[in-house]
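Schema walkthrough. Field components (list of strings):
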Amino acid sequence: MGQESAHIVSSYEQELEQLRSMMARMGGLVEQQTSQAVAAIADRDENAAGIAADLDPQVDKLERDVEAMVIRILALRSPVAGDLREVVSALKITGDMERIGDCAASIARRSLRTELVTSRISLSGLRGMGRLVQDNLRRAIDAMSQRNADLAREVWQSDTAVDELYNAMFRELVTYMMEDPRNIGPCTHLLFIAKNLERIGDHATNIAERVYYTATGEILPVVRPRGGFSGQGG
Amino acid sequence: MGQESAHIVSSYEQELEQLRSMMARMGGLVEQQTSQAVAAIADRDENAAGIAADLDPQVDKLERDVEAMVIRILALRSPVAGDLREVVSALKITGDMERIGDCAASIARRSLRTELVTSRISLSGLRGMGRLVQDNLRRAIDAMSQRNADLAREVWQSDTAVDELYNAMFRELVTYMMEDPRNIGPCTHLLFIAKNLERIGDHATNIAERVYYTATGEILPVVRPRGGFSGQGG
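Field assembly_structure (string):
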């Protein structure tokens, strides 16, 4: 291999590595946003709420940076096969990560509302759901960074548990509202917070599906294991 | 131009046209899903609910078909400049359209719930919001099909009105719940239905932003006009 083509190959590899490192950074940021958002709500931590909301513009900027890098690689390197699949998947994965950031920022903003801060509603269900979603997200991002199809498949399978916790929480919150109209204000916000946590779980599953596809070239079944028509989904 | 290269150019153009026609078809489907979902809820039309839910697999399949076509074009044609931007944007736009389909299917599924079917809550606010969101979505899809930057900019500016209607609806529904605990069941579902309509409006705005970028190469301001921190957003 001549010196020039070695140079080209190496800088192509460097660009792919740079793309991967941007993705890992974005993954780390949305994990941090999510854990701060969960702390904001479960521990009534105002400081954490501020951090989760403040990280959002950084996440949005990274999504745009990844896209610019993808366009650069596509224009200059014309990747094929596995590399092309990886580069295209990067665009889809950053879309999911950006939405995770939005959900976390939304949870954080709601956590500051007076109705919630002063309410005495038990937050133990939300805490458990927050832990599970954080764990799934962390493993989805790990699977992405390690390009680990087995781990991706595992994450994809754990989404059902999040859906079950969400459905239980939905019923619990409606019961609180029925018991005492003063609970209606805080509980409507908690309903949306639980929904946003469930959506973070969904996006983590989407990322896992993508990682699996990028690593193997195969698509996981269209219908993944999840709560049925009768749930509180959507 | 030799016969062979004329052939290559023409089939590249054909592939781009095929991509555009798949996008237009997907856009038409999610418009239809949204109008059926609004009819399902506003006119208590069970048949419309079924149609909105049944269209979802077709929308999902089109998203995968568009991606396969994009990968084909990238691998075989190495598009540059405006064409590359269009092809990459197709992936992002189908992501938004797929989520619009999800929101519409979710509205349709909720509309069938007993609590809602038997309730006497006024649906006039929801009807107005549904009309506005359908209108924005239709114009966003038109802007996409016509690659019309001016129309895209207009759609992008109309999202504020949707947010305002959503915030008004949120307050109205909470009031109904406070008035009579029997309203709590149906109103929680209506809250999520209103939220899903608002999200369809957001995705229509995202599509408009993309169309504007693809047509002009310029990005609309990061912060678009919308309800502030004090709203019921997220």
